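Chapter summary example.
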Amino acid sequence: MVEISTSILNVKKGEESETFFKLERAKTDYFHIDVMDGKFVEKDTYKKMLEYASYIKRISNLPQDVHLMVEDVKIAIDDFLSVEPNIITFHLEACKNKEEIYKYINYIKENNCKVGIAIKPETNIEEIYEFLPHIHMCLVMTVEPGKGGQTLLTDMIDKVKNLSEYIKEHDLELDIEVDGGINLKTAPELKKAGANILVSGTAILMANDYKVIIDELKVEK
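The structure predicted for these 221 residues follows.
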């Protein structure tokens, strides 16, 4: 089943409550929390996302899907564990070595939270294979992380397909999430390639009716 994780990156100040309730009524599966520190990526959304995530925790029971685009992974994990997310995903590229990756995987799990690992477009998919048996989700960035509203990099479709085939061949159970440039035009190819969680922000938030586009994104073709 395809699920939708709506990025709240571009939700406007003052419109949070209305937007979050509308997304919940539209049956988004997750709120996607894009956490950026201004160092790992250019943009800094750290304070805003912690504020939004804390607010969502108070008003909604929908799961939060936290995507850390940060250099200091441990501090960010601790900060966002406070909102009791469903899953915390950190970047492979933010880690110095395998030991550090396993340390974060185990730490997140020990705090009763699912764990995901994200990879940037230039990272070879094979680099994450070793860690797949230990995580709940692999997030394939389909644009360069750090900005909203980018166009999907089409060669990422093959990356998703290769990841999906590897997961099936090795009888693993984990989600494949894709993030960046996801809309009604790009979603079908990614779903066909094997992605089962689609992150979409701009396409949903700019729509007149959130439910119409979320339903359409979920359709398995």
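To summarize the output: The radius of gyration is 16 Å.
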